[in-house]
Write a structure and sequence with these properties.
Strand content: 5-15%
Helix content: 25-40%
Number of strands: 13
Strand order of the largest sheet: 1-2-3-4-5-6-7
Radius of gyration: 23 Å
Number of helices: 12
Order of helices and strands: EHEHEHEHEHEHEHEHEHEHEHEHE
Distance between the termini: 49 Å
Length: 341
């Protein structure tokens, strides 16, 4: 197959139950596909079979994107990931997510990540690296100026752990996304984000969902939005945001570039609707507002409908999972936008 299709550009072998033996067989034939630019091996069981891939990768000079997510690769097997990175310097995007990397896995990768100057997108989501692994990773990439996007979702990181990335952020002027969603960075982490990202004009997306930053942390995020006018997408889902947090957002969003704001799964109820209406009345470019799974009741449906109607740039609002029922839907359904109820 590979000899007959030597001009393949993309190869998707995800979700195929590939085991170490299959990885060995694949390594023999894949070297023929020298035109390959994208390889997806995610959601298999390659595990220690990753050791067979580095040698054929030397032949894949056009390869740009590699996804090895969710393959049961663990601990010292990441040494072979390092060999793979070294063998194929053309790789721009590498996903290692959903593998139990842990501290030992980061240690095994540390050298290659430190000297690599080609990977721009690095995904280490749900890899169980913890605080110690975070420290090792921060040191490894401290002088890496190639990485533009790094995904660290769900790695048991605290706000204090983010300080391990001080040098990386300070030295990297091209950073576009630093995703720490689904950790526990709290208000301390939100303050770190403000201090370190306020001058990074490449940042467009702010991913802080499920981090327990509370209203205090939203204050730091608000200052960040106010000072870094390039941010377009803000996700504050599941952070305990209530009235105080909304008030600070109202003051920061006016005149900014934010187009998408996710406030789902917070503590926004009827008492916060006034602040919401102020938020909607601001002269800013909001296009999408997610308020799903909060505590907004039916009594405020008319006020919300008026606020949506008056905010001319809004094209989509999500109100699912609130305390509304059929009569309230009638107030909202004629707003003239994509409304999810």
């Amino acid at each position: 197959f590979f000899e007959k299709n030597s001009r393949l550009v993309e190869l998707d072998l995800s979700d195929n139950e590939l085991d170490p033996r299959a990885a060995s067989e694949l390594s023999i034939s894949i070297a023929h596909v020298k035109s390959l630019r994208k390889l997806d091996l995610s959601n298999n069981e390659i595990s220690e079979g990753v050791r067979y891939l580095s040698e054929p990768f030397k032949e894949l000079c056009s390869l740009r994107t590699v996804d090895l997510g969710n393959n049961k690769i663990r601990d010292q097997d990441f040494e072979h990931i390092g060999a793979l990175i070294r063998a194929c310097p053309s790789i721009k995007s590498l996903s290692l997510s959903y593998n139990p990397m842990g501290e030992d896995g980061v240690l095994a990768l540390k050298h290659e990540l430190g000297i690599n100057d080609s990977i721009e997108n690095l995904e280490i989501e749900w890899c169980e690296i913890g605080s110690d692994g975070c420290e090792l990773l921060g040191k490894a990439i401290s002088n890496n100026t190639a990485i533009r996007s790094i995904n660290l979702q769900h790695n048991n990181l605290s706000g204090e752990d983010l300080s391990y990335f001080d040098e990386f952020i300070q030295n990297n002027h091209l950073i576009e996304q630093f995703d720490v969603s689904q950790n526990a960075i709290g208000p301390i982490g939100a303050q770190w984000m403000y201090e370190n990202l306020k001058s990074k004009t490449g940042i467009r997306v702010l991913c802080l969902a499920q981090n327990e930053i509370l209203d205090e942390g939203v204050g730091s995020v608000s200052k960040l939005i106010q000072e870094n006018k390039q941010i377009e997408d803000v996700n504050l889902s599941s952070n305990g945001v209530s009235l105080k947090g909304l008030d600070s957002l109202v003051n920061s969003l006016s005149g900014g570039q934010v187009k998408r704001l996710n406030l789902s799964h917070n503590e926004i109820g009827d008492d916060e609707v006034h602040a919401l209406l102020l938020l909607m009345s601001q002269e800013w470019r909001l296009e999408e507002l997610n308020l799903s799974y909060n505590k907004i009741g039916p009594e405020k449906s008319k006020d919300i409908a008026q606020g949506i109607t008056e905010h001319k740039s809004l094209i989509r609002v999500d109100l699912r999972g609130n305390y509304m029922y059929e009569p309230a839907f009638n107030d909202l359904k004629d707003c003239g936008i994509d409304l999810q109820l």
